[in-house]
Write a structure and sequence with these properties.
By secondary structure, the chain is an alpha/beta fold. The chain has three domains: 63 residues, Archaeosine Trna-guanine Transglycosylase, Chain: A, domain 4 (Roll); 112 residues, RNA methyltransferase domain (HRMD) like (Transcription Regulator spoIIAA); 188 residues, Rossmann fold. 28% of the residues lie in helices and 29% in strands. It has ten helices and 20 strands. It has a seven-stranded mixed sheet, with helices on both faces.
């Protein structure tokens, strides 16, 4: 697509963020709107007429535009060849990182210059989510770009599945039901990660089916679990649990409210020849389980779903994070460890640390930060878009 319509004109002085290559344009920065349809690709110019780049836009939204390229790119750049090159670059970067396994994030939205697009590779299947209308309207070009990138990098491709984004983060007009865009539909696929095997439930509603952003933390748990009793809260696929058991944990208890998740976790133990009978699988609300279960652990993992999607969710989310940390701290044996993470965008590292401080006081435990963590390297953070950092985590020593 070649953006030939009249341009978006910014207010005086509001082009600074685009000169700094920040990809988001808010409605308050726009002085003049041309005639266009929501999701159209438009040229952006400063008040003085200087070209700033191109992005797709929509009216009646605070987040009005997402930039695809900037002033150092030709004004005649078309979407299809551009997205083809961007996806290929993203795939090449992941291959250069040399992950141990065949599952990794291939496209990480704004950090790969593809705002609103997420693509995860699971062996021979790609699973993508599109949060923005502009990307949704260019789905065919995106699929063509993915097929090209897999071919050029020598990776086998048997299917591309698009899954809907959570309603809170999806723009109107984006996909609402899962849809296979390439290849034949399947319900699950086996992947390898750090010499372990996992079944990825492609039908599961959570994200794209597996939390790839915790790869390095799972390897850490495997290293630290020998001889320990491990409790994995919000266990989902049981990937942390499998790593703990493979690392020599004497007992691993996995807790999740989803029966399907518990069944998949049990399957992942069998896939790795781990004795299910030596470990526990509990379908339960994690808060209620920690309050009522007669269980203590030497190592606890807290990797909950996002408690806050926006700033208005913060008060309730903060209470939830404080309560879950207090309950976990009360279950840890002296000298035990707690690995905790938050994927809530509005909860930054400083706020999470403050919440843990409050929970530690309430639990009357002396807590030390041993390590800090972020998402894995296949989830890069663009230097121009620091908001791409969404996982905050700590490894805590509990006296």
């Amino acid at each position: 697509m070649n953006p030939k319509r009249s341009p978006i004109i910014l207010k005086a002085g509001r082009e600074k963020s685009l000169k700094h290559r920040h990809p988001l344009v808010f409605s308050g920065a726009i002085e003049t709107w041309p005639e266009f349809q929501d999701g159209d690709l438009l040229t952006v110019r400063s008040k003085g007429g200087d070209y700033q780049g191109c992005g797709y836009f929509r009216r009646n939204a605070s987040l009005a535009g997402r930039m695809l390229w900037f002033a150092d790119t030709s004004e005649t750049t078309e979407f299809t060849p551009w997205v083809k090159e961007a996806i290929h670059k993203a795939a090449v970067m992941r291959l250069r990182l040399s992950f141990e396994g065949n599952a990794w994030r291939m496209v990480h939205g704004e950090s790969d210059n593809l705002p609103g697009l997420t693509v995860d590779r699971y062996a021979t299947v790609l699973v993508m989510q599109i949060a923005s209308l502009g990307m949704e309207l260019q789905k065919k070009s995106i699929v063509d770009g993915l097929v090209h990138a897999m071919k050029e990098t020598g990776l086998e491709l048997t299917g591309i599945l698009q899954k809907p984004c959570p309603p809170a983060s999806a723009e109107p007009g984006t996909l609402t039901q899962a849809e296979w865009l390439y290849g034949n539909p399947i319900e699950s696929i086996k992947i390898n990660e750090n010499h372990l095997t996992f079944n990825v439930d492609l039908v599961a509603p959570q994200k794209t089916g597996f939390f790839l952003d915790q790869r390095e933390n799972r390897a850490l748990i495997r290293q630290m679990s020998r001889g320990k009793r491990v409790l994995n809260c919000f266990s989902f696929t049981g990937a942390f649990s499998v790593n703990a058991a493979s690392g020599g944990a004497t007992r691993v208890d996995s807790v999740d409210s989803s029966e399907r998740a518990i069944e998949n976790a049990s399957l992942n133990f069998r896939l790795n020849n781990l004795p299910e009978e030596a470990h526990g699988f509990h379908r339960a609300d994690v808060f209620e389980f920690l309050r009522s279960a007669k269980i203590e652990a030497d190592l606890i993992i807290l990797d909950p779903p996002a408690f806050a999607r926006s700033k208005r969710d913060l008060p309730q989310a903060m209470r939830g994070y404080r309560d879950i940390h207090r309950l976990a701290l009360q279950r840890i044996t002296p000298g035990g460890l707690l690995l905790t993470s938050s994927c809530s965008h509005p909860v930054d590292e400083a706020l999470l640390q403050k919440i843990i401080f409050q929970a530690s006081l309430e639990a009357r435990r002396n807590v030390k930060i041993i390590q800090k963590h972020r998402q894995g390297p296949d989830h890069p953070i663009s230097i121009y878009y620091p908001e791409g950092e969404y996982i905050k985590g700590f490894l805590l020593y509990v006296e």
